[in-house]
């Protein structure tokens, strides 16, 4: 199941790079204009509208009420529904299920069930096109936070699922897909402003800090940012060491 609760307003303000990079993933879709597409984990709906602009009949799916509310406000011409990646059920099967920056938020134990569910919601010949965090994604940040936690007698849970192609392709095949395209690549990702790394941690690394007092949380984040400055603060900009994985797989 998803392992994060989103702050929709801050997500839009400081992390617009997430849907911006997702536009390139759309190029992997091979279905013609007029095909039906579900944008799984649509967030604030930016890519849902981009898909519609490309001529697809699209609906957005997300499990966050806050994100869906924002999506409906900003993209009133698009259709959005609430649904969990592992259990959503469309009224009619679609030609394409598209997903950007979502699958790494699904618990590893639920990945197979999610892929089987996606397969059930696709028409024969339909395709899954997706990008998400791959093996080694933001490891400089996570490794440093893990060290900061350990030095304080705390455990840093690795709740993110960042697989290799060799780990993930068999899950797709077991769900009934034929993998047509797969790539794993580095994508260093700039962050906004002088507090870009701190803001990134506060937005995307929520679960490890659950139950922690704000002073301790602030101390750990400040310590991690200080240790990472020489590695990730480049030419006046924070750069997070993203690794991405992309697939196109067909029913």
Radius of gyration: 18 Å
So what's the overall shape? globular
Helical residues, percent: 25-40%
What's the number of extended β-strand segments?
A: 8
Order of helices and strands: HHEHEHEEHEHHEHHEE
Work out the oligomeric state of the chains in this entry: single chain
User: How many DSSP H or I helices?
Assistant: 9
Strand-residue proportion: 25-35%
Structural class: alpha/beta
Biggest sheet overview: 8 strands, mixed
- Average pLDDT across residues? 93
Low-confidence stretches: none
Distance between the termini: 23 Å
Question: Could you characterize what this model shows?
Answer:
- The chain is an alpha/beta fold and 251 residues long.
- The protein is 37% helix and 25% strand.
- The chain has 9 helices and 8 strands.
- The protein has helices spanning 8-14, 17-25, 46-53, 65-74, 111-120, 139-150, 165-174, 196-204, 214-232; strands spanning 36-40, 57-62, 79-82, 94-100, 122-133, 178-190, 233-234, 237-250.
- Strands 1, 2, 3, 4, 5, 6, 7 and 8 form an 8-stranded mixed beta sheet that branches.
- Helix 6 crosses helix 9.
- The longest helix is centred in the C-terminal third of the chain and has 19 residues, at 214-232.
- The radius of gyration is 18 Å and the shape is globular.
- The mean pLDDT is 93.
